[in-house]
Design goal:
This protein is mostly helical. It contains five helices and two strands; from the N terminus they run βαβαααα.
């Protein structure tokens, strides 16, 4: 999508040079919508077909259908002690946002979202994520190695496997979050 400069006075546009900056009064390409890219919107467009359909136009009906199915399953399975119709309504209503998110993520074309980074794999946030994930994996290996050594040398101290798994499962996101926040602070 090109924008037109109607200022014929010369001004700042006349002083610019380089690709994308024409003479005053000439159309020039802006950074917001590069050539060949579809216009961006708040909720994006679908990633299939011609991509003209808003993503929410697909996600909302699909989420309504799956929320109704969730409600029907809840009523038939008697997950609630109350009336089945009320259980179906409550379960369906509560599951609707989840299904909406699932279907929206499944159908949206990322480049059509306002504010989306064109190449997210090259962003600083992605670098922080990679560093935090690899550091968290190192922390888990260190934790399990130290834990195994301690349990080996303390014969009288026993711990259940489920407790060990819960400790490891809780340490992973904590380690990741700390490392991500530290990386973000460092810049």
């Amino acid at each position: 999508m090109a924008t037109h400069n109607t200022d014929d006075s010369g001004g700042a546009d006349a002083a610019r040079s380089g690709p994308g900056h024409g003479a005053p009064g000439m159309a020039r390409q802006t950074d917001e919508t590069p050539t060949g890219q579809r216009p961006r919107s708040r909720w994006g467009r679908v990633a299939f077909g011609r991509g003209k359909l808003p993503a929410m136009a697909v996600a909302v009906p699909a989420a309504l259908v799956f929320a109704a199915i969730t409600g029907a399953v809840a009523a038939l399975a008697k997950w609630s002690a109350g009336p089945p119709l009320l259980a179906a309504g409550v379960f369906g209503l509560c599951s609707f946002p989840f299904w909406l998110l699932v279907f929206w993520v499944a159908v949206v074309d990322r480049p059509t979202l306002e504010g989306a980074v064109d190449r997210p794999e090259d962003s600083i946030e992605q670098w922080w994520y990679r560093e935090a994930a690899s550091g968290a994996l190192t922390d888990v290996f260190a934790l399990t190695g130290l834990g195994a050594a301690v349990l080996t040398f303390t014969k009288d101290w026993r711990i259940e496997a489920s407790t060990v798994l819960w400790i490891v499962a809780c340490c992973i996101p904590i380690s990741f979050a700390i490392r991500y926040l530290l990386g973000r602070r460092r810049g």
